[in-house]
């Protein structure tokens, strides 16, 4: 799965929004969940973990490790939903300049076609789209 | 890419050969290279790094991180050849009992079909086959 999203903000601000836990917690994931970051150690070998919480208290936990972090350029990390343990994906986010702002290209590689289809059916596209809309607001604040 | 290999040894010994650096250095990779392990921290979030060295001194370096380690059952890790930086794969090794011994099932997921084809053309199958032949000898020693 490949996703490209363009932003009006600079690549430096986009990278900040991706890597500073206080900023990440304000945009990542679907609107109907709050996001609690438990660990976000953005360096090669660092771990990350967060929980999405629905208004009825239901929790969805995710975790992974960072394979590599190239400041301002690229992050490669693993991703696992602990509700379906053992189904791990590899995610890269590559940050690029454009004439007016920047873009991120996300590539997700799954261990099977079934894993990929399960994530898509779980509403990955909506979650990502909503997350990036929230990120627009975070980036607007950083620009001020 | 999925690879299955059967061994006469117990699953416990197979897992040892996969996780103890002194044993790993004796079997992993093609016969024509020596293997120097620089880091092998087998736990979720741990890093690994090794160098294959040809007889003419040429070095091929590899690194990655462990996403999860379930003793005796499964290892999930990232894999990167530093000669082609940025081309990362996700590798899982699942260990299973069988009537006489054990088996490992390896699944490798690449970020693109081109990445997968490049690894196959580089001789991945021969390297894995030769490595497992060396591992047979290591496992024979563990059994004594």
Provide structural commentary:
- The structure is a homodimer of 144-residue chains.
- The first copy, chain A, has 144 residues and is an alpha+beta fold.
- Helix content of chain A is 31%, strand content 42%.
- Chain A has four helices and seven strands, in the order βααββββββαα.
- Chain A has helices at 11-19, 21-27, 113-121, 124-143; strands at 2-7, 34-40, 47-53, 59-70, 74-81, 88-98, 101-110.
- Chain A has a seven-stranded antiparallel beta sheet.
- In chain A, a hairpin with a 6-residue loop joins β2 (34-40) and β3 (47-53).
- In chain A, α1 (11-19) packs across α2 (21-27) and α2 (21-27) crosses α4.
- The relative contact order of chain A is 0.23.
- The interface between A and B is medium-sized, with 23 and 23 residues.
Characteristic terms for this protein:
homodimer; 7-stranded antiparallel β-sheet; alpha+beta; 42% strand; globular; 4 helices
